[in-house]
Amino acid sequence: MAPSGHGGKNLAEAIRVAYREGQTDYSMAPLVLEDETGTPVGTVKSGDAVVFCCRRGEREVELTDAFTASDFPHFPREKLGDLDFVILTMYHEKYKNMPIAFAPHSIQRPLAQCISEAGLKQLHLAESEKYAHVTYFFNGGHNQAFPGEDDVCVPSPKGVPFDTVPQLSLPSVAEKVKGGIAKEYDFIVVNFANGDVIGHTANFQAKVECAACVDKYLGEVVRFAKEKDYVVLITADHGNLEVAYTKEGKPHVAHTANLVPFFIIDPQAGAAIHPNPGSLQDVAPTVLQVLNLQQPAVMGGTSLVSDYNFGANRKALLVILDGWGIGEENDSNPIFKADTPFWDALCSTYPMAPLQASGSAVGLQEGKAGNSEAGHMNIGAGRVVMQDDVRLDAAMKDGSFQKNPVLRNTIQRAAQRGAALHLLTLLSKKSSHGSVDYPLALLQMAKEEGLSKVYLHVILDGRSTEPGSAPALLEELDARLAEIGIGTIVDCVGRGIALDRDGNYQKIQQAYECMALGKGKRYR
User: Fold this and answer.
1) Residue 447 sits in which domain range?
2) 270 and 136 within one domain
3) Do the beta carbons of residue 89 and residue 57 sit within 8 Å?
């Protein structure tokens, strides 16, 4: 028996049954459509094409790895061969060689390239949790280091909860920074990962210890840099650590839209320098001024100390405190609560300029909290770089989504070899992770290419959607599929299972086996 319509009504009824059994959208166990012979419909097979219609990243990585990684130790899985697996955006550097529909723009003449062209030596340094941010993202989407650039990665702790090691690998990072200073690199950029990594945990005491640790090693690095006559610039990519609790008193574990600090210290200055307020795009022009290099016309930012003369032959150290925003001075701010003598002295001795690090100031949607990718890309590019959510929304509006060559070529290849197209989509009209508008556009493209076998694998939301709204959303989606004329909704699983981000691979196994093997509670 074929599903009524395009499968949405069938799944909606199966979900209503699951509700009565106590299940929720967010944690919905896999439900799988079967035909009259009891065979699951529309499973992902070798030779098929898949488009993962989510755009953000930290919640999409584990399921992407399950489908694409050659070496995958987390659960038994026979890798599907000759699978065209397309991601909408590059939400992790390890996917840089995969087909990416909206790959990051390769920024022309970012800070690192300008320094390289001047024949100067530079060091980019971070622990592994943030290594891509001081290399790929800081360098404007360039995969390879520029001539004269050395990149150093310090391994982050593995196999332990991060809140049990709030210092992470910062002692080693700090030692390597001092080593780079001793080697007289002309420019050094370093990321202190702690504020963001520990800020994402719910452990208040770990956050306080994290802030104290950052203070200790920031002091060590800055004092050594000043001794070696380096101009020191200190800022952050976005806020996080400075807010520990929500208004309701629950642990706050997300990024914030708060301003971030900017300090600049010149050991040769007779008095403290007063930087101007600005945004992250202004950091690169400031570094260029320190190094006495001309700012390229493509940089939209301006130096934060344009009226100051650093003199000739200066060297610069840029410290990026990841997730270290400007917060309220109260008991819910771990930075304020921590023992931070160096930070306190810094704030009392040197004027601080607040920088915008969220929303449209860094190429995100208005009012949206900043993130590490946007932060480092804007810092390194010296201009506002449009981020993925804005780019995709614009592409949907101007029609370029439907003309995207990666998506179009994938659909064409599937049609030519008689393969199926699978769309992994979040059942939401507006989420930071995606929208049903993306698969609907892909269905129209598939119809134009004469592709008839198109299957939708639905991830129920329950966060950006009202709990219990999935059946109505599915029936609405079913009607849209009927208008287009192709596409069958064949299974679903909750977001809390399919989009895990905490290494709970037993959840990812459920989602993968639902989509690839048809494992789950059956319905017709």
Assistant:
1) 8-102+390-523
2) yes
3) yes
Task: Write out the two tokens for 381.
Answer: 């590019």
* 411-462 tens-digit pLDDT: 999 999 999 999 999 999 877 677 899 999 999 999 999 999 999 999 999 8
Alpha-carbon torsion 106, 108, 109, 111, what sign? negative
> How many other CB atoms sit within 10 Å of the CB of residue 304?
24
Name the domain count of the chain.
2
Retrieve residue 93's tokens. 């550097």
**Is residue 32 included in any domain, yes or no?**
yes
Residues 287 and 165 in one domain: yes
Last residue of a domain, one of 325, 350, 385: 385
Contact 484, 440 (CB under 8 A): yes
Say if CB 387 and CB 373 are below 8 A apart: yes
- Tell me which long-range contacts 212-215 makes (C-beta under 8 A, separation of at least 24): 212/338, 212/339, 212/340, 213/166, 213/167, 213/170, 214/170, 214/321, 214/324, 214/340, 214/343, 215/338, 215/339, 215/340, 215/341, 215/342, 215/343
Tokens 């301003």, residue located: 259
State the first-to-last Cα distance of the chain, in angstroms, to the nearest integer.
8
Q: Which among 335, 365, 385 is the end of a domain?
A: 385
Q: In 3D, which of 176, 522, 521, 239 has the Cα closest to residue 371? A: 239
Same-domain pairing of 381 and 394: no
- Residue 218, token pair as written in the block: 């920031």
CATH number of residue 177's parent domain: 3.40.720.10
Share of the chain above pLDDT 90, in %: 81
Cα maximum dimension of the chain: 84
Question: CA 27 to CA 507: how far, in whole Å?
Answer: 10
At residue 410, the 3 state secondary structure works out as helix
